[in-house]
Specification:
Length: about 200
């Protein structure tokens, strides 16, 4: 880092921003195969949290590639950079006192752990959407598995690119077994048990 860049301390702290919002900041990091239900569950959870007055923001894998990460492809190197940028953005949002929901395949443990290490203990909640690959492929909401099987898409997670299952996720959901409401209830219960929301 350039020696002329100096950290500027703010007059308002994260705890003050959090106190104003009446809940603790955290990142709920949804990870799993394409079609597992990450975006669907995260979206439903954000709606439920919003109804309870929580201050939230949802970062979705496809959406950030329209702006923040539009210059990145899907090589391993670009995927790593994608998660680095999203992690730093989510960190800024937690500093603002928000509950940040992120829906990214994020196939590599090292990158998910990197984001965990950006924030304070207890602020990174890894939500593993453990929906079996065959179920995700049968759903194929964007037609991506079909293209990957036909060789039209390279480096597709679960087909010709690996997915590293989380070692110790805070929450595991299987959307092939749980209804959307059950998944949201499980997440809300966890956030209340950890005193992140009231």
């Amino acid at each position: 880092m350039d020696e002329n860049i100096v950290w500027h301390n703010y007059a308002i702290t994260k705890s003050q921003r959090s106190e104003q919002k009446k809940h603790k900041p955290a990142i709920l990091w949804f990870t799993g195969f394409s079609g597992s239900g990450k975006s669907t569950v995260a979206n439903a959870l954000e709606a439920a949290l919003n109804q309870q007055g929580a201050h939230t923001y949802l970062l979705d894998g496809d959406n950030v590639r329209h702006g923040l990460c539009k210059d990145l492809g899907f090589s391993d190197e670009d995927r790593i950079e994608n998660i680095r940028r999203v992690g730093e953005t989510a960190k800024l949002m937690t500093d603002a006192g928000l509950l940040v929901l992120t829906a990214f395949i994020s196939p590599f443990r090292a990158e998910r752990d990197m984001v965990r290490n950006l924030v304070d203990d207890g602020e990174f909640i890894e939500v593993f959407i453990d929906t079996p690959l065959d179920v995700c492929e049968s759903r194929d909401p964007k037609g991506l598995y079909k293209k990957a099987r036909a060789g039209e898409i390279k480096h597709f997670t679960g087909i010709d690119s690996s997915y590293e299952i989380p070692n110790n996720p805070e929450i595991i959901l299987d959307t092939s077994k749980n209804t959307l409401d059950q998944s949201v209830t499980q997440l809300i219960t966890y956030l209340k048990q950890k005193h992140i929301i009231g």
